[in-house]
Amino acid sequence: MSQSFKNFINGKWVESKSGQTFENRNPANWNELIGLFPKSSKEDVDDAVKAARKAFEKWRLVPAPARGDVMRKLGDLLVKRKEEIARAMTREMGKVLAETRGDVQEGIDTAYYAAGEGRRLFGKTVPSELPNKFAMAIRVPIGVAGIITPWNFPMAIPTWKMFPAILSGNTVIFKPAQDTPNTARMLVETMAESGLPDGVVNIVFGTGGEVGRAIVTHPDVDLISFTGSTLVGKQISKDASDTLKRVSLELGGKNAQIVMDDADLDLALEGVLWGAFGTTGQRCTATSRLILHDKVYDKFLSMLVDRTKKLRLGDGLLATTDVGPVVNEAQRKNVQQYVEIGKSEGATLVAGGNIVSANGTLGGWFHEPTIFADVTPEMRVAKEEIFGPVLSVLRATSLEDAVTKLNNTVYGLSSSVYTRDVNKAFEAIRDIQAGITYINAATIGAEAHLPFGGVKQTGNGHREGGWTVYDFFTEWKAVYVDYSGKLQRAQIDNY
Ligand code: NAD
Fold first, then answer.
1. How many Å lie between the centroid of ligand 1 and the Cα of residue 230?
2. 177 CB less than 6 Å from ligand 1?
3. DSSP 3-state assignment of 140?
4. Exposed e or buried b per residue across 97-115, where buried means at least 16 C-beta atoms within 10 angstroms of its C-beta
5. Superfamily assignment of 7-251+459-478 in CATH?
6. Mean pLDDT of residues grouped by 10 in the chain (495 residues)?
7. Given 3.40.50.2000, 1.20.120.160, 3.40.309.10, 3.20.20.370, which CATH number is that of 255-439?
8. Atom 16 (ligand 1): residue with closest C-alpha?
């Protein structure tokens, strides 16, 4: 008998109204069933929204430092459960244990940051133009937040959204990706243990089309924080427009690493291996293009191919594994399709390209780390997000040429430049169109206390992380206190 799990609404674990379920399986061994989760419907979302709305009326009045105390406790509880959650995460989505531990750590960092923010959440005081009048702007909570997340960072991404939302005085309804319900369940369980009042956090499992859409279109949900594909992000933006919700979208990427002719090639090699094949290439910040200066192209490519062929595929729970499986069959088919597209476009396959068995079994969704050389900017493998272990290598003749090629995409999330020339580094920082630029470091590795997000079709201008996410989860209220005892007229009395 497989284990069955429930939704969490108004402080209780409850069955979905439909009674239907969906399966959660291990991508490294598809025969292994992890559990059954509720396939919920609009009715379950209605219940969660009611609970969250009711809880908001009390939670918004709890002083922010006291909300911060709950966040600190939550951080402590997550520290205790770090290893347990990391193992469960590897089991349900495949990335190696070192990375799932990092994913949980990002949640812990975000909890402690939120705890500190409880004693800041700064407003501003500004001078009034009139005498005996005091002016200030304060942050106020907004209401009920819908949180919709992907599977590739099952802990980090939901915590980036929910912890600042709750610290700011909002309540939340969380709809995790269908591939990673178990990590989400453990996160919400820990949040409940931390002392959050009933209804402040609610989780409703199910599909995007049904549960996700019901949250986005619900008239009593005030804001949506979404991370996922650009296609779904655009749909959410349209669906949310009828109720004029505030929407934050963190979407796809086609990130590139530039290696200049003066770069430390060994360092750049470690960077691209980590950036392209970490999380099996399934990061929004993954390095999916490598732009090599002409003068180092042949040498660097041969170093890269050599090391890539040595990467060991396998179950992410084993210490011998460098690269885990992709998350599911559809995702592996997508990767395969792009391998065929690359070949038909005339790119040269120099490493990988195949589906493989790992651990002597075909039971998991494994695909070889793959490299295409001789890629030109107009090819689809140079422009479209693949979200798998496929790297496209392009050639550039100068920094300007390299940056033009890097910018040649509808996305703009992360970017990286390897050079020892400080002038070139700063020119790149100035000209690259992306929300994140690394110098002499890989395209992946964002830290929880800095702004995170992208330009162009990677998002709609909001930022997660650090202090910036609090701008999304709070409303500014301007307050004037007139203690003159008479009518004072702005713009008129003084001029
Ligand atoms: P996805 O867009 O398919 O799904 C994301 C979430 O949206 C899931 O929970 C899904 O159930 C839900 N959803 C689907 N359709 C919906 C609808 N019509 N209304 C409401 N919700 C709906 O993405 P995915 O496959 O889970 O994740 C991969 C994508 O996420 C990639 O494109 C990747 O670049 C992107 N991503 C972006 C960031 C970032 O911060 N920019 C981070 C991680 C992943």
1. 8
2. yes
3. strand
4. bebbbbbbbbbbbbbbbbb
5. Aldehyde Dehydrogenase; Chain A, domain 1 (3.40.605.10)
6. 91 97 95 96 98 98 98 98 98 97 98 98 97 98 98 98 98 98 98 98 98 98 98 98 97 98 98 97 97 98 98 94 95 97 98 80 85 98 97 98 98 98 98 98 97 98 97 98 98 94
7. 3.40.309.10
8. 208
